[in-house]
Design brief:
There is one protein chain. Helix content is about 30%, strand content about 20%. It contains 15 helices and 22 strands. It has helices at about 1-5, 10-20, 30-35, 35-45, 70-80, 85-95, 135-160, 220-240, 250-265, 270-280, 295-305, 310-315, 325-335, 340-350, 420, and strands spanning about 100-105, 110-115, 125, 130, 175-180, 185-190, 205-210, 375-380, 385-390, 395-405, 405-415, 430-435, 445, 450-455, 465-470, 495, 505-510, 520-525, 530, 535-540, 550-560, 565-570. Strand 17 and strand 18 (about 520-525) form a beta hairpin. Helix 2 packs across helix 4 (about 35-45). The longest helix is centred in the first third of the chain and has 22 residues, at about 135-160. The model is unreliable at about 1-25, about 60-65 and about 470-475 (pLDDT under 50).
């Protein structure tokens, strides 16, 4: 099936498509843009064929990085504006709705749900997370109708967004249910722009496609349906009266992912994208490109500081100005300052996971369950001094740690220059952080643990530095694994604590099932030191065979030097 799906590509298209799978997700929009019109049509033809969708290069394995097809569809709509008649006709035909066997109207009358009751695209409810319920297509369609009515109520009537227009001759929004085979949650499709509506970017009427059961996704069944509806309907809202910002698709995706959490705060599908963000906090917002799911913490942070309707004000502003300017102006109208908020946001993003409890109040409702920010530099305070230098792009943040033994100080530097962000200034600002344990002068700022630091930036008023934690020796030592229980859908690994004054630098970790069968042997593991947690051994929650542990209670033994430590923990998959 894989080879059959590839035969329709010419050699040139195959090479370009391979490029899509070779580059990071945030750069794939560039590869799409570099295709000729004929190459793009061939690519779109395979992308739109349900039988080959899962083998389209660039989409393979992208469930965790590509919730929807917004990048591909918006590129298609853009090409319609300049393509010749034959290419334009091909693109319009490929974007047209795919016929289904039957349909129902939602209770509000606003949504028409098209679905199949038999065949590979037949809709179905799930029993648990793995089994389709036979003959449940009508029940699934009714659930789809109810969910979209609920999403409309919140996003349009409660948040105050303008309702998107219906497609020509229609009096309801069309939702098509099909089998995406785990490749996409869903997608919003549109082609020719609407007549001028007073916006600086084109607007579109649209329809939508969603998966027929959400089996095999990060979030499955009706919860997968719910977050997809919230996400994709907001794309319809964005396109309908606010405009398509083709070069700022990150803003579209950031907003849609935010509304998953705003509409359904208990589901938390967005956790999967926060892992990538926390590994790349130094990346400028606009460089997330056709992604942007990872930036959902920014509107969530602003919602807590201001109020939930701020995101609507951003989109109202974007009818006339680009996204960064609209965000700056929207925050100013609430009496705030975007530069200061970026600095506070960088601080808040450090206090997630087990660190969340060190910040009161917590910046996010889900702070304890979120992935933690990755350190960009960790340096020992040798001979009483340490120096860390770097370069940081606008809206980016870098986390640094200086340590000596168990005593550590953590810092974050944020490029809060909003004017440069508006100009999309690619050149970063250089900085240098110097920390001394003794012998400093009055150009240094003292720290609570007896050290001092000096921060120098290459551009005045562009960077802000914050001391996050200092003097870890005063922290309470942990003696139980974190998190416990462990949910692999929310956390990438566990931490098994060890004494802070441990002399060894490696340890052996053994995981046993309730029947005392050895399921994981992790020998020679590095003993890590965290500025809050202390010494620990990390564990990814997988057996020796590479599978995630099933839900249940497990026992562990850690051997380090001549000593050992035992205990138990739980795995709970939700």
């Amino acid at each position: 099936m894989r080879m059959a799906g590839m035969r329709g590509l010419t050699l040139t298209v195959f090479a370009v498509a391979m490029l899509l799978s070779a580059v990071p997700a945030f750069a794939q929009e560039d590869a799409l843009r570099e295709m000729t019109d004929l190459q793009f049509v061939d690519y779109l033809r395979q992308y739109r064929d349900p039988a080959t969708l899962t083998v389209v290069p660039g989409l393979e394995g992208r469930v965790q990085n590509g919730k929807c097809g917004f990048a591909v569809i918006s590129e298609a709509a853009h090409r319609l504006e300049t393509a010749g008649p034959a290419v334009a006709a091909d693109i319009r035909a490929l974007l047209a709705p795919q016929a289904r066997q039957t349909s129902i109207l939602s209770p509000s009358g606003r949504f028409r749900i098209y679905y199949d009751t038999s065949g590979i695209d037949a809709a179905a409810m799930l029993a648990g997370d793995t089994l389709r319920i036979p003959n449940s297509a009508h029940d699934y369609a009714q659930a789809v109708a109810a969910v979209f009515d609920s999403v409309y109520q919140i996003e349009v009537l409660d948040y105050g967004f303008d309702a998107p227009p219906f497609e020509e001759t229609l009096s309801a929004y069309n939702i098509f249910v099909m089998d995406f085979r785990g490749s996409l949650y869903g997608q919003t499709l549109f082609n020719l722009p609407l007549p001028s509506s007073g916006t600086v970017r084109p607007t579109y009427a649209s329809h939508m496609e969603i998966d027929n059961d959400f089996l095999g996704y990060e979030t499955r069944g009706l919860d997968g349906l719910r977050v997809t509806a919230a996400h994709e309907f907001h794309h319809m809202v964005q396109l309908g009266t606010y405009g398509l910002w083709l070069s700022d698709r990150w803003m579209h995706e950031m907003s849609s992912t935010y509304f998953e959490e705003a509409v359904y705060p208990h589901i938390n599908d967005y956790f999967q994208y926060i892992r990538a963000f926390m590994r790349n906090t130094d990346r400028a917002m606009w460089l997330w490109g056709a992604d942007g799911y990872e930036l959902a913490l920014w509107p969530l942070f602003l919602e807590h500081k201001y109020d939930p309707t701020l995101i609507r004000d951003f989109w109202v502003g974007m009818r006339q100005v680009e996204p960064m300017t609209a965000m700056r102006d929207g925050i100013q109208q609430r009496g705030g300052d975007m530069g200061a908020d970026l600095c506070s946001w960088a601080q808040a993003n450090f206090f997630t996971g087990y660190r969340a409890y060190a910040m009161t109040p917590q910046a996010y409702d889900d702070a304890p369950a979120l992935a933690r920010a990755q350190l960009h530099a960790s340096q020992s305070l040798a001979a009483n001094e340490a120096t860390i230098s770097g370069t940081l792009a606008p809206t980016g943040a870098m986390y640094m740690r200086v340590y000596r033994g168990i005593d550590t100080v953590s810092f974050v530097v944020e490029n809060s220059n909003v004017a440069n962000a508006i100009q999309r200034t690619a050149t970063g600002v250089d900085f240098e952080l110097e920390v001394m344990a003794a012998g400093w002068d009055n150009s240094y700022t003292p720290l609570d643990n007896g050290w001092a630091y000096r921060f120098t930036a290459g551009e005045v008023n562009s960077l802000c530095l914050s001391v996050l934690e200092g003097g870890a020796s005063s922290e309470v030592e942990r003696d139980i694994p974190f998190p416990n229980p462990f949910n692999p859908n929310e956390f990438s690994r566990m931490q098994f604590p060890l004494p802070r004054n441990i002399a060894a630098n490696r340890a052996d970790l053994f995981i046993f099932s309730p029947s005392m069968n050895l399921v994981a042997r992790k020998e020679g593991q590095t003993i890590e030191l965290d500025d809050n947690f202390g010494a620990f051994v990390g564990y990814d929650g997988r057996t020796d065979g590479g599978d995630l542990l099933p839900s249940g209670v497990y026992f562990y033994v850690i051997k380090y030097g001549d000593e050992s430590k035992t205990g138990k923990f739980a795995v709970v998959k939700r």
